[in-house]
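Exercise (ungraded).
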Amino acid sequence: MTKQHENHRDMNFSHTVLKQSGGSTLLGYIGIDTIIEQMRKKTMKTGFDFNIMVVGPSGLGKSTLVNTLFKSQVSRKSAGWSRDEKIPKTVEIKSVSHVIEEGGVKMKLTVVDTPGFGDQINNDNCWEPISKYINEQFEKFLKEEVNITRKKRIPDTRVHCCLYFIPPTGHSLRQLDVEFMKRLSHSVNIIPVIAKSDTMTVEERQEFKQRVRKELEMNGIEFYPQKEFDDDIEDKSDNDKIREMMPFAVVGSDKEYQVNGKRVLGRKTAWGIIEVENPNHCEFAQLRDFLIRSHLQDLKEVTHNIHYETYRAKRLNDNGGLHPITSNDTQESNL
Amino acid sequence: MGQQKNLDGYVGFASLPNQVYRKSVKRGFEFTLMVVGESGLGKSTLINSLFLTDLYSTEYPGPSHRIKKTVQVEQSKVLIKEGGVQLLLTIVDTPGFGDAVDNSNCWQPIIDHIDSKFEDYLNSESRVNRRQMPDSRIHCCLYFIAPSGHGLKPLDIEFMKRLHEKVNVIPLIAKADTLTPEECQQFKKQIMREIQEHKIKIYEFPETDDEEENRLVKKIKDKLPLAVVGSNTIIEVNGKRVRGRQYPWGVAEVENSDHCDFTILRDMLIRTHMQDLKDVTNNVHYENYRSRKLAAVTYNGVDNNKAKGQLSTNMDTVDGMSPLAQMEEERREHVAKMKKMEMEMEQVFEMKVKEKVQKLKDSEAELQRRHEQMKKNLEAQHKELEEKRRVFEDERSNWELQQRLEQQKMEASRTLEKNKKKGKIF
């Protein structure tokens, strides 16, 4: 958003000289670059959707982190502090939607939680309900797209980003982590996150991160930002820097404490206060900036242009054309 | 029992405890501790901290550094000495527990191990010669609960339910520096509630007659399960050197009772309740096992007589006969085995002898052959030499002949000369 503001300011003071592909130079100021401003106005009016999924065994602070990320009570547990909720017997998918507004921009945020993942004694195939859910959302979107009379704005329930919570064992990835990420990195953007990182000292954290990165590489798991989708050198260098820091070691909290006269979000222990937004304490601030302030739109684009297109191509190839839609409308597909 | 009588003078048996003490110190003590929990919960670090030794160091990394596909049970022994008292400490570790995707029955190897130790003890008790009775039974099992802050996981509940009647289970909250004090309180309450709900019998601290001790025991009971932090790195805090973990926001001290319950665990485990743990293991858990095992025997013994005494294939099981009969059986089997072994050995011996004889014969033949070969060589050489000599002789005689011829020629020429000199040649 800030970038666009700056452009807006510059727009009125300079003559832009563009060399088009045809090779003609402009003789005066036309105003093509106001398109950015027009887009911005449109976006503000219509708002946009963002769907984030959190996956990980219970007790890793998933709901707390989501609350901290969006600075409001948006998680499944926002209804009340339900600590004594029983662990469900199978993996459930629960999604909660909120509309949050900032600076005139409305965002419909949906948080999809997966209680029961990795909590059972036998966790075979616990990733299947999640995979099914993601594909269902793609299917919904596809159905809307192939309709003859389409809605003006197709409601986008596809999962744009999946935060996978790695327990801070300090040793290496567990088999369950590797299995899940291997199977889902091709249908959704996975961002691995080290949960409850206040368990580890700074050295332990660095070692653990290196080991996790090596294991991810060894298993061929492409987490977001994927190397193959870097558009140009600038993107690549930015993303390389981010990839070096991943997985982010985070701490979440929704309680505020007084530190040096400032009120900060943190956790108070007998030996000190852990500040969530202090980059020396944990990497929450980097995760937030990465997720929301710089790559939010990119996450949506990659989901739409790559993951969704992969699903669509596979669907159309497998069935040799879509089956007629079995919903209420009796229209045939015109593919 | 008889009535209590008062003594009129000093007899001196008040020194009995001292005698027992001196004897025990000479004998030394044994203690076996088992640690169970998912990998990465700090089990090895805690053991190192508790006993202030590096049982798991960088040269011999703990089981968690080696990837395991199935649950293993590993033992490490260490002999510690303090103040003249020797302690043979055995740590039983269970790497791989709870680490797979499918953890059904991951407790089975552990149960089998505990049972096998009980069985060893039972067998050594039933032996005729009982001089050496090493006690390798598991006296205490520390179960590590991950600090999720929510409650027990299904795996935790299953495990504790299956083991609480076989061994003293002491649940611990691992890596307790993850939790704030309030979270820790909540978590502990939740765990205790669930333990009661599932009727899990964790190790209970015994009540004593001593008021002072009872107060301590009550304090411990309130803090169950103990939340521990392990570390052996020494950090300077306010001029003091303490063991702890250094974070950017502070130092979590291991031995500070405000920070975690490590000191309580250590005191309880080593300083006050070690003997009680051993007693409970012996009197309760072991007796349970023994009565179950022997009850099964006598029950089966009746049936077995009807079935004409079928032999059990495994010599170790007690199924099928009463202990005495089993001993007879064992003896007979032992004798039979001995005989068989003897026969086998004889066979092997004969075979070996035959082989050796064969080998010797072979080498003899070989030698003979070589001898022949050599002789032939020698003869050939001899002949060659003869040849050479003949040639040489021939040459010599030739040469001599030539010499003589020369000589004759010379003589002839000399006489000619002489004749010339002597008289004019006409």
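Further reading is listed at the end of the chapter. For now, observe: The mean pLDDT of chain B is 82. The longest helix of chain B spans residues 323-422.
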